[in-house]
Structures are given as structure tokens and as C-alpha cells.
């Protein structure tokens, strides 16, 4: 049944609005019969009967059982069986949807494990790490070998094995696949995708990506034998386009090559079907199509924010990315 219901409908949302600065301003909750009940704060996840829920008051002369009202009568003071049934059903459905967990429902994480993607190394999280550490979190940035998918997943699993207590697993770009595969670890309490791939189990991500217009960065990948890199022009323009040029050039200098075999890997599991998930869409992304990011976020029913950023939102919008990770860790932050 769940597959037949669009994620926005399951959450009671009709859409999300974003300001020109890229940060989500509000969510609108769908009202019965169309229209909306008003705006909710962006960092409040609307759920039936949960935090942020706005329930329209029934007419005073509603008979409590049908869609008609009896003129001149008042609404019963006690909940009818039908009303109770709908309330319990809504709560049960919400409980069955991993992505609908609010920050208040999540265990307070002790650790955060960060995984970088292609054209980068572990230092790309340098703007996010101190923001998490100052909140008392133990943070580890995985050095992804970028050789084969199996070896990349194993590198993350080794780091997860060293963690004690609930852990938030975060992936950027290609490493969303690693998060999707390794995130089934019992220690992982939540998943965060930052402009990242999020395939389903066994899904051909390349085929999925081809259903959307190709992003400009794709044309900038150059190979030396089996090793691939992003050309300097493509790196500065399409990968790190909203960073100061001098900073982008430093990142280009430490770019790690990836092995062609890495791209052949497929996930065998989809952790986002089991764990609460969060997604940061980069609206100015030229490395992964932003509409593809939106599709993947919606499909996993993720708590989603949109950031006016290049593919490297973890640097250019580090505060907002850190805030989303903290929310996944059970530490919701006030929006700036």
C-alpha cells in the first residue's frame, strides 16, 4: 500500500517552498478538500498527530460520523469511533515509515561518520567537522579508497565497527551509495545524504541518472588508463563553482583519482528503507542533476532541505549541512 502513496501525501505535505537564498523557508500541510492549513517552520517535520501537526478544527455542527453537518447541533465532546479509528491509523502509518521520524524521536547520537565521494578526499569535510565537534559529537572522516565499491564499503564498515553507541552515517556525492549499503549496521541511527546518490537495492544508478539531463561535470571526466579525474576547468566551474577560486584550486590539487571499476558497483541493500533519512539538495548542482536529487530524496521519504549551492554544499553551506546532520543526531538547531 505504501508504494502507491506519494511521499508528500504520506506526510500530509503538498510541497516545500524555498527562498532565493536556497534554504527551505516553509512546508505546507495539505488540508482536507484541497488548499493548505498554513506554513510550518522549515525544520519542523509535519506528521499526523506529531510535532508540527496542524489539524483543522471540524465544524461545530459536524455529526461526527459523516461528511455532512446537522444544522443547529454541536459537535460531540467525546471522540467518535470513526475519529478514533482515523487517528490510530494515522499514527500507525507514521510509525511504519522510517523517514518520518522527527529529531525528537531519534536516539541522541554519540558519533558521526562522514564519507567523501569522487574528486575529493576526507578533508572536504573540514568546514563541517568542527561544527559537529563543538556539539560534543565524536566525528570520523573516512578516507574512501575509490578503488572498487566493495572496498569502499569495507572502509566505511571498519570505521563503523570502532564506534560506540548510536551513529549518524553521512555521505556526499558518490558515497551516498556507501551510506545506502553500509547504513544497515545496527549502530547507525540515521542516514544523511548531501547531494548524494541514493539508489535502491540492486538498482543501476547510471541508468537512473540517464533519465535526467546529463550534468555538465560529466563531460569533464578524463581517464588515464583505468584512473579517472575531473579536469581543472570542470572542477572549478562544475564541481566547486560557488567557492573562491583559490580555495577551489587547493581542493583540485588534493583530488584523488578513482578507479573505473568503482563505477560498476551496485548496492545490494537500501538502508534508507530501514533508517530515518535526511537529504540536502544542492539547487545549483552541476555534478548531479538537482531534479534527480529531489527524486531520490522524495522516494526515500527523507527530511529534505534545499540549499543554493554547488555540488560542494558541505563547504559553501557548511553551517546548514552541519545543522541537518545535528538534526539527524537528535540535536535540532535553530535556523539562522
Automatic annotation (TrEMBL):
Protein name: AB hydrolase-1 domain-containing protein
Region of interest: Disordered: 1-54
Domain AB hydrolase-1 residue range list: 112-323
Gene source species: Methylobacterium tardum
Domain of life (superkingdom): Bacteria
Entries under InterPro entries matching the protein: AB_hydrolase_1 (IPR000073), AB_hydrolase_fold (IPR029058), Sec-Metab_Biosynth_Hydrolase (IPR052897)
One Pfam family of this chain: Abhydrolase_6
